[in-house]
Design brief:
With about 140 residues, the chain is mainly α. Helices cover about 50% and strands about 10% of the residues. The relative contact order is 0.13.
Amino acid sequence: MQQPFPELTRAEEQVMQVLWRLGPSFVKDVVPELPAPTPAYNTVSTIIRILEQKGFVGHEAFGRTHRYYALVDQDEYRRFSLRKLLGGYFGGSFSRLVSFFAKEENLDAAQLDELLRHAQSPPPTSPTDGQLPPTASHEPTQPA
C-alpha cells in the first residue's frame, strides 16, 4: 500500500533532491547544491527543520551541529508524486499522461517505441544515481 505523504513545497522538494543525491549532509553542504538564487543558510536550515517535522528528514547531532539524512526513499516519493499527478491531471490514466507528453514533446514513433520498451522492462535491482541501498541505516548511534 502506498504511504500518503504530506504536501511539500517546491523549496522542500529541492532540498530533498539534494539530500537524496548527496546522502547525509550538513546544512552548509546543502546550500551550494540548491538552484539559483541560492537561499540563505538560515532559510535552508528552517526548510530542513520543517522537513523533519513532516517526517522526511532525520538527523544525528555532533555537538551543536546536525547532519541530516532522508527518511523517505526517493523512489517511494516518486511513485507517490506520479500517482498524485496522474489522479489530479489525467484522471488516473497513464495512457493519457503518455499521450499528453507525446504531443507536447512532439515524439516520433521511434521515441514512443523506446518509451514503451522502457516501461515494459523490469526495474534495476541495484540502487542507481549514487544512492545508498534501502537497507543502509542512518540512525545515529547512542553513546554508551
